[in-house]
Amino acid sequence: MRLRGRKGIRESLEGQPELVVLDATPHRGKWREFFGNDNPIYVELGMGKGRFISQMSVRNPHINFVGVDMYDELLRRASEKARIAWEEKGEETPPNLALLRANIEGIESMFAPGELERVYLNFSDPWPKSKHARRRLTHQRFVSKYIEILNDRGEIHFKTDSQSLFEFSLNSFADMELVMRNISLHLHKDEPREDLVFTEYEMKFMEKGQPIHRVEVVIGSEVLREHRENKQKSLRDEAAASSESNEDDTEE
Q1: HSE of 175 in the Cβ direction (CA atoms, 13 Å)?
Q2: Are the beta carbons of 41 and 64 closer than 8 angstroms?
Q3: What is the DSSP letter of 107?
């Protein structure tokens, strides 16, 4: 992607150190110091124009968010969106959001092991040619890095409009023996999921009726334990309901 940025864009970004981070190195392992609290940290890799990460930060003020992209122009647009979103809340600067200029290839140099609680991958480049498979953000070499920087409540939330990328990703997660939940082949089939925040791409696809694929990958030991307990409880409840139904049929 090549973006024609406005004149003076780098100066503009450098003038927003409270929101825009141009070098993650000093913050690795110290992101809670940047935010000034111990709240969980969620990261969107490839944030684009920033609608998703901005709205997520507004909806979830007790969570810290980091939007990552490598293009100055996208950071500029995201910073504008973020400030507009928070102005409606009476805040001049988003208190729980950082926009990071970085190449995702080096994500392990941006965040320390266990520093993050969630990774969002929204409409990542599908890199459709087989020879480019290693560039896909759900390739095992990337997923291994996510696992390293996620904590014991760590999750990966992945959305895409590409069926081929979704199939590749499910196989990638399965080959790594990761637990997946809430798999959807057509997320907004019946009606828009208003409980979720939409990206710019997602809104366009929804208008055209194109299927959106989504999956949550359970990584951390604590959230994995909770997932298994909930699944077992659901199975017990189903068995109890089935038993009651059989007893009713017998009485009739």
Answers
A1: 12
A2: yes
A3: G
In angstroms, rounded to a whole number, what is the distance separating the alpha carbons of residues 93 and 15?
13
Q: Residues with catalytic annotation?
A: 125
- In DSSP notation, 150-192 reads EEEEEEEEEEES-HHHHHHHHHHHHHTT-EEEEEESSTTSSS-
The pLDDT assigned to 249 comes to 62
Q: Please return the burial class of 233, using the count of CB atoms within 10 Å of its CB with bins 0-12, 13-18 and 19+.
A: exposed
Q: What is the DSSP letter of 96?
A: T
What is the C-alpha to C-alpha distance for residues 153 and 85, in angstroms, rounded to an integer? 28
Q: Give the number of other CB atoms < 10 A from CB of residue 131.
A: 7
* Identity of the residue numbered 123: F
Distance in angstroms (rounded) separating the CA atoms of residues 188 and 23: 37
Sign of CA dihedral 71, 53, 199, 186: positive
Look up residue 221 and give its two tokens.
């030991």
Sign of torsion over alpha carbons 18, 23, 25, 26: negative
| Cα torsion 4, 42, 143, 173: sign | negative
Tokens of 83: 């400030």
Answer yes or no: are the C-beta atoms of 44 and 197 closer than 8 Å.
no
pLDDT tens across the length of the chain (252 residues): 445 556 789 999 999 999 999 999 999 999 999 999 999 999 999 999 999 999 999 999 999 999 999 999 999 999 999 999 999 899 999 999 999 999 999 999 999 999 999 999 999 999 999 999 999 999 999 999 999 999 999 999 999 999 999 999 999 999 999 999 999 998 887 777 877 888 887 888 777 778 999 999 999 999 999 999 998 998 888 888 877 766 666 665
